[in-house]
Design goal:
The structure is a homotetramer. By secondary structure, chain A is an alpha+beta fold. In chain A, helix 4 packs antiparallel against helix 5. The longest helix of chain A has 18 residues. Chains in contact: A-B, A-C, A-D, B-C, B-D, C-D. At the A-C interface, strand 1, strand 2, helix 1, helix 2 and helix 5 of A face strand 1, strand 2, helix 1, helix 2 and helix 5 of C. Strand 5 of chain A pairs antiparallel with strand 4 of chain B.
Chain lengths: ~280, ~280, ~280, ~280
């Protein structure tokens, strides 16, 4: 019996930094975390313990620091493309560099009706993400949003579904729909305005969620993806994963009360999961 | 040897609900989680397993649901006071009711320049909290903020501190200062406008943080507490706990570069902790 | 422009239950959590909001409860195969059922040198997992381990690696190596003794980790995979993901002390990541 | 209005280290995390930004590293007492030092029926803790256990409790009882065998939990505390906090099945909380 090394990669995760840019009268800060993985010619490292083709993960980290010292890290996508180019240029043994990046968003505190020049607060869990994958032939640039929790109290139903002997769920004509939006989309080129596009995609996803007359999670997911592919020329594909958060109408009958859509109980588990990719064809 | 039951309490934690109010053309949602604890005459339950004075935690939960069905839960403080009064009225065996409450903040999604009537997103980790403690003699109402992460890139130094043989920290004249603001304050009466006051306290804390010329964490904490006690008649005491997040200036000398306050490395541990209570005297 | 629905699935996550089996004089408990996903003919649900082919996630949950009432859930793999068969039998619209399952491990408390008949404690984070994927043509059964944190204080080096101008890492001849073992392996058939095999694989992985003379993470990963493929006939493939936890030797020179491999500082980020699949060829 | 600085403290949290001791043929590792807080004369630091009495938290960290280089850190309590003595000796401005310490437990991997000399695995969440508080007059030493999850499937009832109009809970004669054991106890002296005592207390708590014929959470808590105070001369007080994990019997009637204590559904929230202190009198 022979053993074969199939897919493999290595790298550094959670390379985390804050970059301050200091203009006269105004500072700006950006906080990012990156994971970098290399694919390439690493058979000898695995099978014989020969490290001559292994650039240490620690060096990947130093490289991120060095480039962040010399260049802006905004937008995330351009900084990531720069890193990929650097690593492919100096590492013949590497065939593919994959970068997952996320940005934690700091905003200037308000001060007398204007942004304070040097004080900031960080907004919650929601993250701007970017997924880059580059070989010597081509590069894929995906941008994304993670952990954006939304909810709607009208225009959501779930009816006429398939039933079997274990089905006890009632048809619902007017339920609460709540999902965590996780989305990422593929750009057709590397030469777009990543910052403004990200904000426009985010706005379009939220509008599609809010305005859709939903028959199901699938139906809403499709409407959100459709809105992006229909409105953005530079995007050829979108992946949406929308775990739902259940809000059950509390049963108050045992307490002698009705409950006309007033008190709901959030449930962590189990929850529905749904994911799909939509493409232009 | 005799054994004595000293301080004891029991209750229910994470009673969690979403309340929807439905006006014509506009819905509103509030999500809260409460912990309720009873202190009282529970010796027999502990020592003999006699449950006749134990109202089940499950009933505390039902009571929260029932009152939330019948009454607004905004502001948190009024809802909590109502619960305390209810439990003390119907439970002679209870001498004190303690409630820790927190609210996760949902905001209307924007839609065509106005708030969407029935779609919402939830803002991060930051929580509005309330701590209530009531006996038949008196009630204490505290309000609070938790998990508000802030950072400033100027006006922060740490110099002239005590040194010993294990001190290696350098004096810093211009460092990054970042803390998680956890604050709670005691109201002098139960009859104030809890909602507007909470927003005003939050604003004052952030301004004090942003504008203070900081010599140390202690110095900034004091300035923040002082701003509250100096500006709010109805507040007699404030407790501040400000764990700091370190942002170390990256040492790029081994990479052949300087680093004039550009690239910082966030560190999770160890971190400085600081807490104090300020009172009007 | 036409839009095409590409890969898609839906289901229920975190279906969580505890099953008690009660023999005379001895109880046993097993706690599992399952995620179930369906792939199939769901175009109409997405594009037209037609739910007639959507079996609700809530029904998946009920089905798990019903089968767990009627059958043993041990081993996890047999229970999962039973669920897959059930869903494919009664759902013509479904082409593939995917189940991710995990078990939290409870052990009898000791009592007078023997296991207590009805009292248990739960062992930490480590989980036994299973990944099943079934169509009407064939089924893949993978078993796994997650979150098994290990460390070795000898027989680990990292030398002769590739260096570039940003490389500052020193060669290490005797370092601490610590990784979180995440592994899953593919069985060649559905008809094996899943329970005993899982324990044997776990033991073999730990021995390979402990005994290997490591030149790098890659080298150790390969040795661990090799040990499994070399020793288990029924396993054709193994995937290993070994995020490493760094333990840096504390630099005590500024405190006037040496540090001969005594005090190490655990670091959460950044950390090295490494993953590979080994196959019999 | 004058403002008064009331209780205040500062320090360093999550000072985290791994200590390796290397005997011929056998290594041992211990991983600890400490929080250290100072109380003392810090009025000027707060009110005037005068740092001359502030020993930096960074120096506390260095001191821990230096002492861990020179001395064993086992048992935790002796190491903590050493730190307290050090800080009080060299810091006249400090009146009290408080240390919260926890140990993550590593055990030798088995190897051919014996412990492997230099390879280890870490056991889950469960932690050994220690709480030390020292002034120039006296020191309190508490030891503890946190996050020890246990469950029993017999000998647990909850009946004859108080009912009100919102009570819907049914009396239960034979339920599952599951709690997270968090305990800490006060030693009467500093000169005991902390290591063996900790293991003996842990064993006694588990036996009391397992063997008790429980009428309620309160009843079981009291029995556990009573077992400690009754069996350990050197312990004068114990605090127990036992958040319970609910396991609801699944209602399978809608699926046409009974459920004779077989399938239970774990619920995260809400959960019952209970805490008490027992003292020798």
């Amino acid at each position: 019996m022979a053993i074969r090394l199939a897919e493999n990669s290595y790298g550094s995760s959670r390379i985390h930094l804050l970059r301050v840019s200091r203009q006269q009268g105004r500072h700006d800060v950006r906080e990012i975390a990156l994971s970098i993985r290399f694919e390439g010619d690493f058979e000898a490292a695995h099978a014989q313990g020969d490290n001559r083709k292994i650039l240490p993960p620690d060096t990947m980290k130093n490289t991120v620091y060095a480039l962040a010292r010399q260049h802006s890290i905004e937008p995330l996508e351009d900084f990531g493309l720069h890193l990929i180019e650097h690593f492919l240029t100096y590492n013949a043994q590497v065939t593919r560099v994959v970068i997952d990046a996320s940005e934690s968003i700091w905003t200037h505190l308000p001060h007398g009706g204007k942004p304070h020049p040097s004080a900031f607060s960080r907004s919650g869990d929601q993250e701007r993400t970017s997924f880059l994958s580059g070989t010597r032939e081509r590069t894929h640039v995906r941008a994304g949003i993670e952990n954006l929790l939304v909810l709607k109290t009208s225009n959501s139903a779930f009816e006429d579904f398939k039933k079997d002997p274990y089905t006890t769920l009632q048809e619902e004509t007017d339920r609460i729909l709540s999902v965590i939006i996780n989305a990422n989309w593929l750009y057709t080129e590397e030469d777009v305005e990543f910052g403004p596009l990200w904000h426009a995609v985010r706005k379009t996803l939220l509008e599609a969620f809010a305005e859709h007359h939903s028959h199901s999670l699938q139906h809403t997911l499709y409407a959100m993806g459709d809105a992006i592919l229909g409105n953005f020329e530079n995007i050829s594909e979108i992946h949406l994963s929308l775990p739902s958060k259940h809000f059950h109408l509390a049963d108050l009958a045992p307490l002698g009360m009705d409950n006309p859509g007033t008190v709901f109980l959030p449930a962590d588990e189990p929850h529905a999961i749904i994911a799909a990719t939509l493409k232009k064809s």
